[in-house]
Design a protein that fits this description.
heterodimer; A: 110 residues; mainly beta; six-stranded mixed β-sheet; three-stranded antiparallel β-sheet; 9 strands; 0% helix; globular; B: 121 residues; four-stranded antiparallel β-sheet; 48% strand
């Protein structure tokens, strides 16, 4: 199972919006609405911020939103804040007991 | 409050074994699937292994299949990972994670702080 493809880096200024892509195949992202996104600050454990493509767990600001088109899922962070600077990872269910992560994207708030 | 506390990490020589434990609290443990996810130093996340609520389904990532064994003791609210024939490339921070249902295999709702495993001679 190959890893999902994410851009290594993304950036934006405070208040702007940034979108991070996560590209898979018709066997994972394209086949299931089970794409999740995680935020990881340096030295911390990852935190689930989006599940099932576009659902925000309780406590996650509505500045974070998810979507999917074909084999590509996207995470959009609106109204960028300094604390949004972190690494972001996507993962996707791939059927049976298979699941795959993306390589991660480092988001920099300029 | 959900808590996942890993233990058992450390420095081990290649070819040797190590057993990780994860003590869970703050939720009904046997209602949820559990997983191990690892992160090599400076690298991304890699799913290692998962287990259904009743241990009826277990599976492993390709890089550890045949060497690692996942198990759980619902009476003790604990998850385990037996790691045999360890290799330098197994060096990583190993996270214990909680699924969102008894059989979920895609959402990792809560994470522990990780147990560091270093494989080196």
């Amino acid at each position: 199972q190959s890893a999902l493809t994410q851009p290594p880096s993304a950036s934006g200024s405070p208040g702007q919006s940034v979108t991070i892509s996560c590209t898979g195949t018709s066997s994972d992202v394209g086949a299931y609405n089970y794409v999740s996104w995680y935020q990881q600050h340096p030295g911390k454990a990852p935190k689930l911020i989006i599940s099932e493509v576009n659902k925000r767990p309780s406590g996650v600001p509505d500045r974070f939103s998810g979507s999917k088109s074909g084999n590509t899922a996207s995470l959009t962070v609106s109204g960028l804040q300094a604390e949004d600077e972190a690494d972001y990872y996507c993962n996707s269910y791939a059927g049976g007991t298979k699941l795959v992560f993306g390589g991660g994207t480092k988001l920099t708030v300029l | 409050e959900v808590q996942l506390v890993e233990s058992g990490g450390g420095l081990v020589q290649p070819g040797r074994s190590l057993r990780l434990s994860c003590a869970a609290s703050g939720f009904i443990f046997d209602d949820y699937s559990m997983h191990w996810v690892r992160q090599a130093p400076g690298k991304g996340l890699e799913w290692v292994s998962g287990i259904h609520w009743n241990s009826g389904v277990k599976d492993y990532g390709d890089s550890v299949r045949g060497r690692f064994t996942i198990s759980r003791d619902n009476a003790k609210n604990s998850l385990y990972l037996q790691m045999n024939s360890l290799r330098p490339e197994d060096t990583a921070l190993y996270y214990c994670t909680k699924g969102t249902s008894g059989t979920s295999w895609y959402d990792f709702e809560y994470w522990g702080q990780g147990a560091l495993v270093t494989v080196s001679s």
